[in-house]
Amino acid sequence: MSNKNVDILLVEDDGRLADLTAEYFEQNGLSVVIESRGDRALAQFAKLKPRVVLLDLMLPGVDGLTICRELRETFDGPILIFTARDSDIDQVIGLEAGADDYVTKPVDPMVLLARTRALLRRAESLEKPPHAGTDIALGGLRISPTAQEVMLDGRHVQLTTHE
């Protein structure tokens, strides 16, 4: 699978749950790669460059909190912790470790999909500034971010570098 096609790296050691989750996401247009071991998750991440990471906490090899902290050193994208650990302190620790969201199992697949899509939308909106490459027109005012110019009633408006 090409790196650019991977939407989600699902780090989950429960094979049946991982397969069902991946199947549901794929039926809804998202590509998923499953990694069942914590000690291989970072290498998979580096190889695949997914758009979002869904991460269990209790994994063989390396625990999910450690993975989350290490991912945060180089990855600004969304990390969603998806785990059976449901205490308030676990949620606080997970979010403080760098996760963007925390979902406890069992969860309705529609809810997990909606939360994942919300994280992806937020990440995409941060990647590209509003109106990038699109001229903005208001009455006689035209702003061209691409050309870095402003026109008012057809005349070029002189701006400082800062402006």
Walk me through what this model shows.
The chain has 163 residues and is of the alpha/beta class. Helices cover 37% and strands 21% of the residues. It contains five helices and nine strands; from the N terminus they run βαβαβαβαβαββββ. It has helices spanning 15-27, 38-48, 64-72, 88-96, 109-127; strands at 8-11, 32-35, 52-55, 79-83, 101-104, 136-138, 141-144, 149-152, 155-157. The strands form two sheets. It has a five-stranded parallel sheet with strand order 2-1-3-4-5, sandwiched between helices. It has a four-stranded antiparallel sheet with strand order 6-7-8-9, with no helix packed on it. The termini are far apart.
Give the helices and strands, then pairings.
Elements: E1 8-11, H1 15-27, E2 32-35, H2 38-48, E3 52-55, H3 64-72, E4 79-83, H4 88-96, E5 101-104, H5 109-127, E6 136-138, E7 141-144, E8 149-152, E9 155-157
Parallel strand pairs: 1-2, 1-3, 3-4, 4-5
Antiparallel strand pairs: 6-7, 7-8, 8-9
